[in-house]
Amino acid sequence: MRTLVIINPNSAGGRAQTIFKKIEKRLSDTFGELLIAVTHGPQDVAGHLDAAEKADVCRLITIGGDGTNHVVLNALAGRSDLKVALGSIPLGTGRDWSRSLGVPEDPCEAVDWLAHARPFPCDLGKVESLNRQMDDTYLPRLFLNIASAGVSGEVVHRVNRARRRSSFTFLSATLATLTKYRPQWISVLCDGKEFYSGSCYLVAVANGQYFGRGMWIAPKALINDGMFDVIVVEGMPRLRILLALKSVYSGTHLEREDVKHTRAASVLVSSKEGPLRLDFDGEEALGQEVRFSMMPGAVNILLHSSAAAVKRGVN
To answer: Which pLDDT value is given to residue 43?
Structure first.
């Protein structure tokens, strides 16, 4: 059984292929025969998966960031015959999905971690966004980690346009955005019932626990419980939101009265004030009406059963 390795050469500041060369032998010693694929854009992934389908591939390991996982996952969605377990060696700016799973950031340690992982059913989220200023069609996308609307979409917009990225890129983009962002009036329905209506900085619909490079936005989220954790940050004075930012890194923001939390299998977010900026796994879009729906156990990932984001007794 072969392993397909998809490398995003733009990850790690363009050093992804160099890093791969350092761990290639370790990977082949661990997993046997490797198929190596370098992808320069989403359009390349389909061809790599065609090759994998013909080559008896049982594992797919990405070397890149959350955006790389997002592209690969959406390409896999239409290939029900390709049964692979998805793993990753995190090199991106955020690395938040791997943080939820407990994958080490060091590439060599990540290979060793994957060596002791096994296929595990994981939930996926589907997001369908409608931008009434452009058309009246819903465009579906799948996400693995977290999808959100509001200030987070503005932050990702800044990050994706940064000329150089570092471990401080997300924090600096967050601070810059919060000093200018105006909360929008939104409505949030969870499983068909009104959960929130009012001024809002952020709605996060979480499968994983972290986003924004280490913000512990959904500390109670589990990747295999068939439910989203939904977090709403109310509109508030700018100074208060800046002071509250620290609590997101510790997960204590859920104790605040101006932060709402619930669980749901479907979520509908709508804005009367125009499109919201959206973020899903580090990718961005615009949507005025956004539907999120849960897809329980839709993908197998390589995982340790001891991972904190896993519901026990489910396999």
So the answer is: 83
Q: Identify which of 104, 125, 109 has the alpha carbon closest to the alpha carbon of residue 278.
A: 125
Q: Which amino acid is at 141?
A: R
> Is residue 135 over pLDDT 70?
no
Report pLDDT digits (tens) over 48-93. Answer: 888 888 888 989 999 988 888 888 988 888 777 778 999 999 987 7
CA 173 to CA 169: how far, in whole Å?
6
| 8 Å CB contact between 217 and 209 | yes
Model pTM score: 0.90
The predicted-structure confidence for 157-169, as pLDDT tens digits, reads as follows 888 777 776 667 8
Q: How far is CA 114 from the centre of its chain?
A: 19
Residue 215 CA to residue 108 CA, distance in Å, equals 25
Candidate from 66-70, 150-154, 269-273 with smallest mean pLDDT: 66-70
SS3 letters for the chain? CEEEEEECCCHHHHCHHHHHHHHHHHHHHHHCCEEEEECCCHHHHHHHHHHHHHCCEEEEEEEECHHHHHHHHHHHCCCCCCCCEEEEEECCCCCHHHHHHCCCCCHHHHHHHHHCCEEEEEEEEEEEEECCCCCCCCEEEEECCEEEEEHHHHHHHHHHCCCCCCCCHHHHHHHHHHCCCCCEEEEEEECCEEEEEEEEEEEEEECCCCECCCECCCCCCCCCCCCEEEEEEECCCHHHHHHHHHHHHHCHHHHCCCEEEEEECEEEEEECCCCEEEEECCEEEEECEEEEEEEEEEEEEEECCCCCCCCCCCC
Mean predicted confidence (pLDDT) in 189-201: 97
Q: What mean pLDDT comes out for the span 140-158?
A: 91
How far is it, in rounded angstroms, from Cα 214 to Cα 202? 17
Domains of the chain: residue spans and CATH: 2-117 (3.40.50.10330), 124-297 (2.60.200.40)
